Amino acid sequence: MDTKWRNRIKIIGWLVLFAFGVGGVISALINENDYYQRNYFKTSQFHHELDTFTQYIHAFEITYRTKEEMKEAVTVSKNEIENQRYHDGSLTEQIRGIEQQYQPRIDEARANKNEKIAEIYVKERDQKIDEVTKNFESDENIKKSIMEEKIENIEAYFKELENYRQEYENYQETFAYYLKNTETGQIFSNLPTKNSEIVDQYIDEENMYYIASYPTKENGYLVFNQDPLVIGYHMVDLPPNNSNDLYEGKIGVSKEAPLTNMIMQNYQNYDNQRIVYWIYTLAGILALAASGILGKRMAVIGKLAPSKWQSKYNSIPFDAALFLQGIFIIASMALIDNTSYIYFNIAADDIIINLGFLTIVIGLTMVQAIYLFNRLKTITSEKDVWRKTIIGRVLKRTKNFFGAIVNTFRNAFLNRRVGTQVFLLLTIVFSFGILTALIFVDEDFIALFIPAILIIGLPLMILIIKRTGYFNQILSNASALAKGEFKPDLSIVGGSVFAKLAEDINQMKSGVKTSQNAQAKSERLKTELITNVSHDLRTPLTSIITYSDLLKNPQLSEDERNAYIEIIDRKSKRLKVLIDDLFEVSKMASGAIELTKAKVDIVQLLQQSLAEYNETMEESHVQFRVSNPEHPIYAFVDGQKLWRVFDNIIGNITKYSLEHSRAYIIIKDENHQVMITFKNVSKYELSENIDELFERFKRGDESRHTDGSGLGLAIAKSIIDLHGGTLEIDVDGDLFKVTVILSLLDQ
User: Fold this and answer.
1) What's the domain range around 207?
2) Domain boundary among 142, 171, 193
3) Does 44 share its domain with 96?
4) Which tens digit of pLDDT belongs to each residue from 648-689?
5) Residue 623 forms beta bridges with which residues?
6) Are 734 and 607 in contact, with CB atoms under 8 Å apart?
7) What digits encode the pLDDT tens for the residues 274-328?
8) CA–CA separation, 71 vs 158, rounded Å?
9) How does DSSP classify residue 724?
10) 371 with 476, same domain?
11) What domain count does the chain have?
12) Element (H or E) spanning 209, and its range?
């Protein structure tokens, strides 16, 4: 605990040292122009005082006229009269404006049955109209009004000017001046004499602390600023002042000036302040250097700004963090300037307090700067920063708001016909609203209102009622459809959007019926699938169980035992084939199977598949006719999976073909595709629904007395689909045709 407190005290001490150093260096830079000079009268502060004094000379001496003189000099030009006359418009416009100003007041007073107030308003209105009318009939009224305004401005000007007189008199105690207009020869001076030959006896180095001579190489001639001392009274006609007038002479700071004068106090304190300035500057530089060395040794950065607070600082919006940093920098500069003022005026009692505040503010500024710098290093994109600013969030919400409005209007005109109709309808209704309101203003509008109601309003109302009824029918039909109920189809009336909507709902109803039929069919096929799977799996399993029980009889002969074992073996293999096919078709349906593709000769692969069925083909009494090109046909396929397709199709031909019939297998290549066609005559009656033949466990032998899993065509189609090809089935009576199409390998 003691170690933690010692570390905190060290950090606080370092901050005080650093704040003092920064304050001293920055203060030195700020006040360099004032305290670098050896004499107060060379500082910018004194020259500002000198410029202020010359401005007072300009106001109280050069351009000064008495109030009476300025009033007597007031004139009104024809242009001023015209501007004043037409300032508020023409005579008609001004009269209309006055009437519009008073008429609501008069009407309100009369509505409240307060006739006296109404008469007062009428009297005021008529009086103002009379005054405006006289202004256009004669110039005298306007001229009189302008002159009164100018005299009022003169009074205000002199009242404000007198506020500066005391300060001007204070300057007079400090400065001695003798100035002469080089053009007119007019002399302005506060010396006992205006004789230019003896001016040097009064304004010389013996009597003056400082002398500014005009003209000199450094100063040139004195030129007065033409802007008035009292700002804001532009209507006052001040005496003309030629800004090009040049003045020669001298201005000096008298040694007889009272020491209580502010300029003299600054002069007396300047040397002491200059010494303090250099001490403060050197001490600041040394303190800043020492803080740099100590800060590096103490690893101050990590202790001032612990990394555990970085994430919380990063949660502050970026622009808010920058603004906060700017506020602290400005506060630091203000405190530095205030602290330097205290130092230079040797106000030691306030030094500790200001230094304490400065230490706190600079410390917080440094902490924020460290966190801000670390945050800038993590920035990955400008967009990311922009999204985290308050301005960015406001602009985004504003954009979303106006975007929503735009989308609302866009959606309203998504169907232009509907949008246009609604817009026109609202325009008509709004127009009728305005027309109704105008009737209360002027009864003459009723003559326009009644025909508009009869010609436009009533037909429009009837149309809206009819469309509303039609729309309600559509809503009722749609609601019933959502509940699964089927009402009679909606009538299609006209070509409106409601008619199109009714047509779409009728189509949806038809689609729902089709979907329900398809769902019923799917449920039927699912039931058949479960039944077929149960039958095909239970048959060999029953045989296995039965003959296994028979094998338990110890009195069986060897021939019977061998026969039973052979049957169990055959049925087990049959059961294995069924289960393997079921797993394989499930994997294909889920997309869990992968193809191992390679360059394969389709002709050769088909011949190998046929060779596997030589014995079966001879026993089936079906004559196979194979037609294939002499050249090889290459495709990029999984040879093992494609062999399975050929095996399943050829196996179906041998099982389900009519005895003593022919089966045709044809291979053709055209348009970068290979087409393999299998045709045979079925010995079983085929379903008219070809799609059902692809269903799992669907077999041509509905009695299910033949071997087979019923998954052959389903597996074959899944394999061809995985290759991006097509497998199609055509049935024409008992003629069964399978067509496999695959893409050829580019040569």
Assistant:
1) 40-62+163-257
2) 142
3) no
4) 888 888 888 888 889 999 999 888 899 999 999 988 777 655
5) 662
6) no
7) 777 777 778 777 877 877 777 677 666 666 666 777 777 777 787 777 888 888 7
8) 11
9) T
10) no
11) 5
12) strand 208-214
